[in-house]
Write a structure and sequence with these properties.
The protein is mostly helical. 65% of the residues lie in helices and 0% in strands. Helix 1 runs antiparallel to helix 9, helix 5 packs antiparallel against helix 6 and helix 6 runs antiparallel to helix 9.
């Protein structure tokens, strides 16, 4: 799978039935962007559709944040969190700049208001978000540190 684009792999996972959050972490794991433990892949299920369908923060943001934590996070307070925070901020800003919000409920508002959230058209739209954020988050995670 080395020649596969992380965004397309994430999009494929999404179109097969995984949520936005799960799809990005699976793609990162499959393509070696970051090693994602199976327990975290399972834990990511609840992040989809803005925290279990609530419409809060989009899973295409939350799971890239988890991936940043896997690579740059800490296990002791004295290790510092600056690098992780810097990259997390960029993940969130990347999404906000493109979609003007971080809230799933706002990004998918047109389908929710019509009672058509579970339609192929909305899933196609969200699959493009998953593809975009997987690509952008991969860049943010993989680029060299300024330390």
């Amino acid at each position: 799978m080395e020649n596969k684009d992380v965004g397309e792999v994430a999009r494929e996972y999404y179109l097969r039935g995984f949520g936005c959050a799960e799809s990005i972490l699976h793609a990162f794991n499959d393509l070696g962007v970051i090693n994602v433990p199976e327990a975290l892949l399972k834990a990511s299920t609840g992040f989809g559709t803005g925290f279990g369908g609530k419409g809060s923060t989009c899973g295409a943001i939350t799971c890239p944040i988890m991936a940043v934590g896997l690579k740059y996070g800490r296990v002791k307070p004295e290790e510092g969190a600056e690098e992780a925070y810097k990259r997390v901020k960029r993940v969130v800003e990347t999404y906000e700049q493109k979609f003007k919000t971080t809230q799933c409920v706002e990004v998918t508002k047109v389908w929710r208001e019509k009672g058509q959230f579970n339609t192929p058209e909305r899933r196609k739209f969200c699959s493009s978000i998953v593809r975009y954020m997987a690509r952008e988050a991969e860049k943010i995670i993989s680029e060299a540190s300024n330390k």
